[in-house]
Design brief:
Layout lengths: L6 E7 L4 H5 L12 H13 L5 E6 L3 H11 L6 E3 L16 H8 L2 H7 L13 H19 L4 E7 L1 H12 L12 E7 L2 E9 L1 H4 L5
Parallel strand pairs: 1-4, 2-3, 2-4
Antiparallel strand pairs: 1-5, 5-6
Length: 210
């Protein structure tokens, strides 16, 4: 039986969307990338271009697939979409602005993002526990696939999905806000996780296309 080798997962949040600009909740709903979002995606792609990736995984939401395609460009890397990497299902909150949510549902977003109760969910949505369960099942499969050969894997997903996953595995006390096209990195070896970067914007900003 061969010894395990380190697997590095690079998480990238999707580029800026029209709903992001309007401060509206997206969840399972899709809002297209803005021109700035496309620039962010291309820029983070340049920032990551010197790293060799075994594969690219992406949420099947269009804003994430588009971000991944712009970032990868002409690189020949296996590309897989996985519905388990989608954003938290926020039910009736989708398409509402943060102001509208506060008026109708109080501080529900703060509660959902804080992980104080993993079983709380938005009406008709999913809980933090449900989100983490599906996200971790996808990441665990990726790790199992590559742990014998090691290497880097690129995962494009969503802010809440990535944030909740990192909070759980790293036992973080606060919710890490992920700007569009920021990068977080976890390292896995022999059953142990190490968080190497959280919401790092340097890959995007250093090569930002004016």
């Amino acid at each position: 039986m061969s010894a395990e080798k380190e697997v590095n997962i690079y998480f990238v949040r999707h580029g800026e969307t029209h709903y992001n600009v309007e401060k509206r909740i997206q969840g399972f709903y899709d809002s297209p990338l803005t021109d700035n979002g496309i620039k962010q995606a291309k820029s983070v792609g340049i920032g990551l271009s010197d790293i060799e990736f075994k594969a690219v995984y992406a949420s099947e939401s269009q804003r994430v697939v588009d971000t991944a395609r712009y970032a990868i460009g002409h690189r020949n890397i296996p590309f897989i979409t996985d519905p388990r990497l989608k954003e938290m299902n926020l039910g009736v909150l989708v398409s509402l602005s943060e102001t509208e949510i506060l008026a109708q549902y109080g501080n529900i977003l703060e509660t959902l993002y804080s992980l104080t109760d993993l079983n709380i969910s938005a009406p008709e949505g999913e809980s933090s526990l449900q989100l983490f369960t599906r996200t971790s099942s996808a990441i665990d499969e990726i790790i199992q696939k590559y742990k014998n050969e090691g290497g880097n894997v690129l995962v494009f997903s969503h802010g809440v999905t990535i944030g909740h996953y990192l909070m759980q595995i790293a036992k973080l006390s606060g919710y890490p806000h992920h700007e569009n096209c920021s990068v977080s990195v976890i390292k896995y070896l022999n059953g142990k996780f190490h968080v190497d970067r959280i919401a790092d914007t340097s890959f995007r900003d250093e090569y930002y296309l004016k």
